[in-house]
Each structure stands twice: as structure tokens, then as C-alpha cells.
Specification:
There is one protein chain. With 245 residues, the chain is an alpha+beta fold. It has helices at residues 4-20, 24-27, 38-53, 72-83, 88-99, 102-107, 124-146, 156-165, 167-173, 208-215, 233-239, and strands at residues 115-117, 120-122, 181-186, 192-195, 202-207, 227-229.
């Protein structure tokens, strides 16, 4: 896999090109994130990136903002509600300042560092992967409703890896024992990406872009070309996610 920190910076640049070209009315348009405008989505990305800019080093701890709610989505919604209303230019400048600093912040962490993040602690490279996944998902929230092209790239391999890697966690959240799953996915350029043990009793095949969108809860499995084979493969597709919850 290409270096995730380089790919994270490239994902920021791709999104920045979209945001820089938005007209004022597009900033106030509804996004694909329920209840949020495009400006709200970018504000959320800025707020979460700022947390990366001052990382809390920890052995086992987690970081969840204290906003009076116990859910991740609720905490993020509270933070956006508390700060929405700034001019689009200010929101964009705030996101740029935080986002373009992130790769160097993560790259500078000593080997073995664990950083507090939401409900767990992550290595700097895994945190970079989650930031790439979140920016890619929210880019869909911005571009799809506005009819703006946002091509999938080889960078989504990191997102597919994250979704597969966290399947045991997804099963545990649902109160289920982990099930071994092999993913055989087709990359945007037509090459093959595989994750897991080919001998696993459960197999998911199809476009990597679809798998990532299911993991981001932007599509349901039924809306995709993915195939689930094996006793628990359909449940894996129903439970998979590439973001904290």
C-alpha cells in the first residue's frame, strides 16, 4: 500500500479543489448528512481535524468531546450546532489550517505512540487512515447532492482495509462473536484487492468503491454490486463500518 500519510494529504487536496470552487449558495445547500448544510460538513471536518493537531498521547484512553451526550454522532452534532454560522470563507480557512497540518503532526509522532481518539486509542498511521476515510465519506455528502464529480482513486484501498480490519469490532458492537471474512474487491482501476484469509467461510466480492460506501453508510448492500457468500457474510455487510460509533 502507498504511504497513508501521503495519500491523506492527496485526499485533502482533492477535497480542497472542490471546496475552493463552490459558489456561496452551494455552501448553504443541504448536504448528504441529514440536517447539515455543506458548510456544516466542512465545519465538522475542521473541528475534528483540530483534535488531531493537538494529539493526546495515551496508553489505553479515548477522546470523546464532552457535550452532554454519550454518542459519537450526538457529540459531533452538538459541536457543529454550537459553532455554525461562520462565513464560508472562514470555515474553509479553518479547515485548511487544521487539515494541511495533520500529515506532519502524525508523521512526527515517535514509534509506538498511541493517540486518544473517540472511543479508543490508535497508532498515528491508523488515525491517518480514519481521517482519510472520514474526509472521503464527507466528500460524498458534499459532492453527490451538488452533482459534482469526485472520482474514486486508489486511495480508497486504505478505507477498504479499515472496514475489513474493524469487522470484529463491528460484530462486537452488535453483540455477536467475530466471524472470519475474506474480501476480494475490484479497485477503481480494475485491479484486485484482497483482505483476510482466502479460506474463510465468508466471502464478500465486488467493487471496492461499493464496499467503502457501505462501510460509510452511504449505500446499503442492496444498492450495490457486492456479493456476500457464506453463513455470516450478509451480516458482515450489514454491520461493517469505517468510522467510529
Amino acid at each position: 500500500m502507498a504511504d497513508v500519510l501521503d495519500d491523506l494529504a492527496a485526499e485533502y487536496r482533492q477535497l480542497d479543489a472542490v471546496l475552493a470552487a463552490l459558489a456561496p449558495a452551494q455552501w448553504s445547500a443541504p448536504s448528504g448528512a441529514a440536517g447539515w448544510t455543506v458548510a456544516d460538513v466542512v465545519l465538522h471536518l475542521a473541528q475534528s481535524e483540530e483534535a488531531v493537531g493537538t494529539p493526546a498521547v495515551t496508553d489505553t484512553g479515548a477522546m470523546l468531546p464532552s457535550t452532554g451526550t454519550t454518542t459519537v454522532d450526538g457529540a459531533m452534532a452538538d459541536l457543529v450546532a454550537a459553532e455554525r454560522g461562520a462565513a464560508p470563507a472562514d470555515v474553509l480557512a479553518r479547515w485548511r489550517k487544521a487539515a494541511f497540518a495533520t500529515p506532519d503532526v502524525l508523521r512526527s509522532q515517535p514509534p509506538g505512540t498511541r493517540l486518544a481518539w473517540v472511543r479508543t486509542s490508535l497508532s498515528p498511521r491508523t488515525l491517518a487512515t480514519t481521517r482519510l476515510a472520514e474526509h472521503w465519506a464527507h466528500a460524498q455528502d458534499i459532492t453527490v447532492p451538488l452533482g459534482i464529480d469526485y472520482p474514486d482513486t486508489a486511495r480508497i484501498r486504505h478505507i477498504a482495509w479499515l472496514a475489513h480490519r474493524t469487522l470484529p469490532y463491528a460484530f462486537s458492537v452488535a453483540g455477536r462473536p467475530a466471524a472470519p471474512v475474506f474480501c476480494d474487491l475490484t479497485a477503481p482501476d480494475g485491479t484486485r484487492w484482497t483482505f483476510g484469509d482466502p479460506a474463510a467461510p465468508n466471502r464478500i466480492t465486488g467493487p471496492a468503491a461499493d464496499f467503502c460506501r457501505v462501510g460509510a453508510r452511504r449505500l446499503t448492500p442492496e444498492q450495490t454490486a457486492l456479493r456476500a457468500e457464506g453463513p455470516e457474510a450478509a451480516d458482515a455487510l450489514r454491520l461493517v463500518r469505517n468510522y467510529a460509533a
